[in-house]
What does this fold into?
Amino acid sequence: MRVDKFLWSVRYFKTRNIATEACKKGHIKINGQAVKPSREVYPTDKFVVRKDQINYEFTVLDIPPNRVGAKLVDIYRVDTTPKEAFAQNDLLKYSKDYYRKKGTGRPTKKDRRDIDDYIDETD
It folds into this structure.
């Protein structure tokens, strides 16, 4: 089975086209090497899929005949993604809450009060 079809069938991507684009951009690695969408997938291959700034790692157990239900995905792969990857994503979410983009103008009165409160807490 092709890489893009496999990733679609085990529900890492919503469409095959999105999976193909991820392969072309180099977000999919098998056994440490970036792959093309047409590469064949075999049992015991180790995948690293970069999606939403998280590196998902898993090992292929078997090849599904076609797209499978969400409850049946674990039959075909073993997820080995470290928990630190998800913790890092949570920290990134929190940092985006307090980040102010350049060029958005002067701080509002509420922004100014929040900045003052933050500075008072650190002192």
Summary: The longest strand covers residues 54-60. The two ends are 59 Å apart (CA to CA). Strands lie at 28-30, 33-34, 46-51, 54-60, 77-79.
